[in-house]
Design a protein that fits this description.
about 130 residues; mainly beta; Jelly Rolls; five-stranded antiparallel β-sheet
């Protein structure tokens, strides 16, 4: 998914919806993201939501905003167990520079993930720098 700020208006949203999937308590979502935003941009953002099978937003699983420079980063999110859609939502920021992209979306089983509802959010969201 690539969001180009020259198309659309500030605050517009672009979504990427997964098919309905069933996740175990050890499911790890990994993806690369690129966020080159104007340093004063407070609108541009990338979020990942759990969405019910009836297509209503349920839980915010991940959110990133601000300028991350001209480089790719890796996000890892332990997912709650259950059956639902994942939805990636990019929000258009300032028209001058607010480009957001995601790539290499991967879901795997990982021992570092425990049931997210039972641990603080800071323990199950891990950010690493991805060297391209």
């Amino acid at each position: 998914m690539w969001l180009d700020s020259l198309i659309g208006q500030t605050g517009d949203k672009v979504s990427l919806l997964s098919p309905t999937m069933t996740f175990s308590e050890h499911s790890l979502l990994t993806f690369q993201y690129h966020m080159l935003l104007n340093d004063t941009d407070t609108t541009g953002a990338l979020s990942v939501f759990r969405m019910t099978e009836l297509l209503s937003f349920d839980t915010l699983l991940y959110r990133e905003h601000g300028n991350h420079g001209d480089s790719w980063n890796t996000a890892e999110v332990c997912l709650p167990s259950g059956t639902y859609h994942l939805t990636f939502v990019g929000t258009v920021g300032l028209k001058t520079l607010s480009d957001i992209a995601i790539d290499n979306i991967f879901i795997s089983e990982h021992d570092k993930c425990v049931e997210p509802d039972s641990v603080p959010r800071s323990l199950y969201i891990v950010l690493n720098t991805f060297c391209s």
